[in-house]
Amino acid sequence: MATSLEAFGTRGYDATSLDTLAAELGLTKQTILYWYGSKEGVLGAVVERVAEELVEAMAAALRDVGPGYERVEAVLAAVFRFGVRRPAVLGLLREANRLGPEATARLADGLAPLVDGAAAFLASEMDAGTIRRADPRLLVLFVYAAVVGSATEVEAQRAVGYEPGIAALRQFRRELFAFVRAALGP
């Protein structure tokens, strides 16, 4: 799965062939087709695995965190850490969204528990007055778009004068967290 994730997440779905994947894995194309049926089948398996890993990472991040915005920040930190350590994952999320209903349905199914939990948490925080009143599911979408979109669009980053690197990554994280905090404030 790691090789397929790296290929789809960095080169993109269209630029990844089964022949290339087979060569990188030391397998034959026929072996991949036997187990997954098609390139779409490989992508689906990778998307499902990544969704499982993200759900596990979020659960771990929330295990020992207090209430309120601490929970939002813990999730942001976990996603950010996940993306920095495994940038192909964020690339895969971006790529899966571009590929249409079949790929996004698998991703949505895998992430449904995470999205449902986030929306329920935001709704309860809105009821408590710690987060501004809005549609909780749309807030999940906006935060997702802000994190994944801004972190994966390297050329857009460069276009605004942001040159990716370690120091810039720290600044990016600080600004992103401040942006989300301001957006969610009551």
Descriptive account of the structure:
The chain is 80% helix and 0% strand. The chain has 186 residues and is mainly alpha-helical. The model has no long low-confidence stretch (mean pLDDT 84). It has one domain: Tetracycline Repressor, domain 2 (Orthogonal Bundle). Helix 4 packs parallel to helix 7 and helix 6 packs across helix 7.
Layout of helices and strands:
Elements: H1 2-11, H2 18-25, H3 29-36, H4 39-62, H5 69-85, H6 87-98, H7 101-128, H8 136-152, H9 154-159, H10 166-184
Helix pairs in contact: 1-4, 1-6, 4-5, 4-7, 5-6, 6-7, 6-8, 7-8
Which H/E pattern describes the elements?
Answer: HHHHHHHHHH
Q: What is the CATH topology?
A: Tetracycline Repressor, domain 2
Strand content: under 5%
Low-confidence stretches: none
- Top CATH class: Mainly Alpha
Task: State mean pLDDT (0 to 100 scale).
Answer: 84
| Biggest β-sheet strands, sense, barrel | none
The helix content, as a percent range, equals over 70%
**Global shape:** globular
Summarize the structure.
The chain is an all-alpha fold and 186 residues long. The chain contains ten helices and no strands. Helix content is 80%, strand content 0%.
Notable features of this structure?
Tetracycline Repressor, domain 2; 0% strand; 186 residues; mainly alpha
